[in-house]
Amino acid sequence: MIFSSPVFIFIFLPVVLLVFQLSLRLRYQHAPLLWLISASLFFYGWWNPIYLLLIVPLIIANFVLGRIIFAASTPQLRKLYLVAGIILNLGTLIYYKYAGFLVENINALAGTHFDMGLIVLPLGISFFTFQKIAFLADTYKGRVGRISLADYSLFVLFFPQLIAGPIVHHAEIVPQFKELRKQSALWDNLSIGACVFLIGLFKKVVFADTLSAYAVGPVFSGAATDEYMTFLEAWGGVLAYTLQLYFDFSGYSDMAIGAARMFGIRLPENFNSPYKSKNIIDFWRRWHITLGRFLRDYLYIALGGNRSGNARRYVNLFLTMLIGGIWHGAGWTFVVWGALHGSYLMVNHGWRALREKFFPQRQPSRLGTVLSIGLTFLAVMVGWTFFRAESFSSAMALLAGMFGFNGVLLPASVQSLPVLGPLLSSFADFGTTREALGNIKDPLTFVFIAVMLAWCWALPNAQQIFRPYEVALSSDTSVPRWPALVFQRTWVWAATAGTVFAICLLYLQSNIEQEFLYFDF
Amino acid sequence: MTSRKFLLLAAMVTLSLVLAFSAFNLWRDDFGLFWSQDAKPVYTREKTTKYLLAHRYIPAKFEALLMGPSYADSFMDTRQVSGYRMYNMSMDGANATELREVALTAIDKGDLRFIVICLTPYITKDHGIKGAEISPKEYWGSLFSLLPIEIASARWDARGKAEARAASTWGMTAFIQRPHMTWERYMRSETNGTNYTADLDPVAVQHLGDIVTAARAKNVRVFAYFYPYNRWFTQSVDQAMWQRYRTAVEALFDKNDVVWDMTTPAYDAMRTDPGCYTDAHLSAAGARIVLADIKRILDLHLKGETAPSPLAAGEKSPCYGKPGQGSGFDRPASALVDPMSIQRTLPAATG
Fold first, then answer.
1. What ipTM is given for this predicted complex?
2. Hey, of A187, A469, A509, which one would you mutate to test binding to chain B, going by the most B CBs within 10 A of its CB?
3. Which residues lie below 8 Å from residue A29, measured CB to CB, with a gap of 6+?
4. How far apart are CA A500 and CA A493, in angstroms?
5. Residues in chain A where the model's pLDDT stays below 50
């Protein structure tokens, strides 16, 4: 069951909300919690009930391990149980996610023919594995008090964040469970949560899915068959994927945050307009914030962070991003993507150190800021090319097209323009016989891409629009440039929300394939 | 404004918009699903459109179906099979499952006399609905989805283009499969030493068989032809795959069905003429030859009339030899008769 499916929007969510509200009125104080756990298990089992047999024992095992670590008498024992817990969780993840990849590479290197068969990746396993490891690590460090099995179960299972995050930290959500029965702002939570959910739904079904159908799929499939990528086709495809991934994942996160808010629970912010980033360090503070936080707190710092000098710090940065890349998927393209971002971060930190040394007082000009945003965006795009491409060679084919190695072929309609045409055509064509737009079905795709780029760069994000209502747990308190875009309960906003929902329904009912990209990770 | 009022107002706006848009589409009835009896062109979203037209429009207006993937779709103008009210139900990219979904809908709801199936390994290499274009939800979805908007846009785009999809109320589409690929590039891909192979999916074969079974059950005569792949393609085909495919598919038909093979030497004049193809697909001139041959077989088996093969004259280059020359609309549309204007005079098939 995905958030953007009619069964979720019209049946599951309303029923769960209704029973949840009724359960708040019951004398049995655990009723709301138990109801949310049951609903979350149903939500997870909807995809494939057999995997309930994986997630439920894992929850119980981790809870028990947490208790044992908590109660262990010596540091050595605590460490032993922690290591056992990490092996249990990572072992499960490695089996489901990486075994096939590992065996494939062993076979390629050793000439063996091991076969793991078909292993179906359980939904959300990468996300809930991180949550459980973080919980065990914090228990080991004495940062976790005694919590009940029900609290722990809901911390892992709470359906808005179960499948694709935000990756919730126990310290920020478990205390909220204890406040569930005290909430009184039912209609406020519903109206705010529904509006945030709508923004996410709109980003997902109108923007992300449309781009996928018209540009991303055709262009990357073309690159996978080693087709010759034209300049505009490659740019169109990679730009479209850059935007699709953002709207898809941030849309999902908005829906998760909105759905949770309907129950009076605040999830952490996961995106903060990442394509407005001025550098890669900034990007990783804005993109998939909860993953970045996990990698920093539980990997980078565990590796030593910046405590052992600059050289070691750079190595740690690189390793953290490399592992972050592998976390996203079992494939060499993800390794390359992680390595690229590791390298970007090393360069960025190095540049920052030089700048602080030689120009400590100098503030960037407006032009410099624009160029920084452009350069960061370009670097991120190059990374996404590897992230999405089916192979290294496909990614290289796309990059060759993007950077003009196949010439700059323009559409006939542009070439026939009076002055601009001949001027632009002088840059063109190394003798290709393909159409300029290649696999991109419709030239209007570029208009669509331009509109979405403007959306990313000019408009506030969902958390900024709803800032006065503290819709998510966030450290960013900036307000949008245009106060008119801050949400208020007026008839204009109500009409807008109603219209947006109608448009979303129109897209939902249409025959556009829906797939959440991060469900694969 | 209170939160409760806010939500109520937003819900009312949504409901109003949904109802207004649905009412407008009900009034338009682009697929003849509810009340309209008008001719229904295929503008865009071919699979969805033909699936919806198969509910009422095709069964009510036509007595025969031509079905297959793109090989039986592009340039296959069923008006050229004169004397028969034939709808081209072929769909670009369709496999046997998708053809089955549409064919069974039309066969079940209509009074068809015969079907003609284009046989290629493409339709049996996989099964299942590809994408989300063919789905029962599209029936009511036609009232509230993007499809009416896309059709309006395509209709606007098609103004004045006589031979474009806008003109075809009999299911013909006209497109060159891979516009970015020249004949020379295509030749390179066919002669690079790599054998063409395709899986033979037993479920897909079963789904193809379901069409034949459903047709027989409704007393609909079955015709089928092996698509005339060009010589270059045939030379690159994995022969073992080809034999497996032929054996599996031929087993679906019995003595009451008419199956003929357009890959035999009798068709070599066509199959060695680049003018008959755009790539592996037929050009307009190539399609004319295939359609004339379909008509010849239909006339022979349904009317008892014999006619010479369109290739009987033995021309070496029946499609003008040069690629591209046979690819355009080189025959005026006015010379052809809309199949819907033909009276249904055929006797019912006897199985």
1. 0.83
2. A509
3. A181
4. 10
5. 429-433
